[in-house]
Design brief:
With 320 residues, the protein is α/β, with parallel strands linked by helices. The chain has helices spanning 2-11, 25-37, 51-60, 123-133, 140-153, 162-175, 179-186, 192-203, 224-234, 257-262, 266-277, 296-315, and strands at residues 15-19, 41-44, 75-79, 96-100, 113-116, 206-210, 213-220, 238-245, 248-255, 280-283, 287-293. Helix 5 packs antiparallel against helix 6 (162-175).
């Protein structure tokens, strides 16, 4: 399949690469690698880039467009996007190719080609295989970008799989790249506003005990993922942090490595909630999100309730 996708990208005169809202470094790095390898590629992130991706884009000298003025007949390539709801604009996906590594999503049946390999911890690993299928060796900057994607999506290898380590090592060896170079691209000091968001998140948290486990929720106005991580450091095993923007909401979810090993998959959990509530959810076992239209407090409570039900089932496997 990847060989066929590579052949289409090579023959296309124009390709638009689409990224999910608040695109992370894995999505950006994957798009950068495609744009450096194939001709006529432009990268569009309708929902913008997250803070780390903005810095990465500047360091790579990468142009990322915010909108498609008018959709033409070019090939559409969607990267690292668990569902069409995560792209905040109307798109005709009938000629689209989707490459993803999250849980399989039937919503992508609207695309012409849907390639999903959820055995990969990052989309960058799939794009690296795509380059191999095209018989293209990434230059140093592309290799460094792909390493960054792997590094960030595995939580600095906390959630890495054997394939992640092999791909990362191969990319290092290609151009003699040091670990410090990859880490340096995404090492940012915590800003004061982010620290305050973490503190406010702690002030506003609610939690429930399920046996020896703790599920926590909180609300804020920004840095949802960062606040989630801080709640895990405080002692939560699973945390959800959300924000309200008008009629829309956004929630990030995080789980500890121990919870992931026990069988928790937040991506599948939030994808299920998204389907039930006509919103878009998905992600990784230990890091996921859901967004759409609705009341964030209600959605946080639904997320917590579903997480607690899952924990109870995992404690009583006979009931599964």
């Amino acid at each position: 399949m990847l060989s066929k996708i590579a052949a289409e990208l090579e023959s296309a005169s124009e390709t638009t690469v689409l990224l999910h809202g608040n695109a992370d470094p894995d999505a950006l790095a994957s798009a950068f690698a495609v744009s450096r390898t194939f001709e006529g590629v432009r990268v569009v992130a309708p929902g913008g880039l997250d803070r780390v991706s903005k810095v990465l884009a500047r360091q790579l000298g990468m142009e990322v467009l915010a909108d498609i003025e008018k959709q033409r007949d070019e090939l559409i390539l969607v990267l690292d996007t668990s569902g069409p709801e995560q792209i905040p604009m109307e798109i005709d996906y009938s000629n689209a190719i989707v490459i993803d590594h999250h849980a399989l999503n039937k919503a992508w049946e609207i695309a012409r080609v849907y390639y999903c390999d959820d055995s990969k911890a990052s989309c960058a690993e799939i794009v690296y295989e795509l380059l191999k299928a095209a018989d293209q060796e990434p230059d140093k900057e592309t290799a460094l970008a792909l390493m960054t994607g792997i590094l960030t999506d595995t939580g600095n290898f906390k959630y890495a799989r054997p394939g992640s380590m092999i791909a990362f090592a191969e990319l290092m060896e290609l151009h003699g790249i040091g670990m410090d170079e990859a880490v340096g691209l995404v090492s940012l000091d915590v800003e004061l506003s982010e620290k305050i968001s973490q503190l406010r998140g702690a002030q506003r948290l609610k939690y429930w005990k399920v046996g020896e486990r703790v599920v926590a929720i909180s609300q804020g106005s920004a840095f949802e993922a960062s606040v989630c991580k801080s709640l895990l450091h405080l002692g939560a095993d699973i945390a959800f942090v959300g924000s309200q923007r008008g009629d829309s909401f956004r929630i990030s979810g995080r789980a500890t490595s121990e919870m992931v090993r026990a069988g928790v998959h937040l991506g599948k959990l939030l994808n299920g909630i998204g389907t039930e509530t006509s919103n878009g959810g998905g992600g990784h076992p230990g890091a996921a999100g859901i967004s759409g239209v609705g009341d964030v407090e209600a959605m946080l409570n639904i997320s917590a309730e579903n997480a607690m039900k899952l924990l109870k089932k995992l404690e009583s496997p006979g009931d599964l």
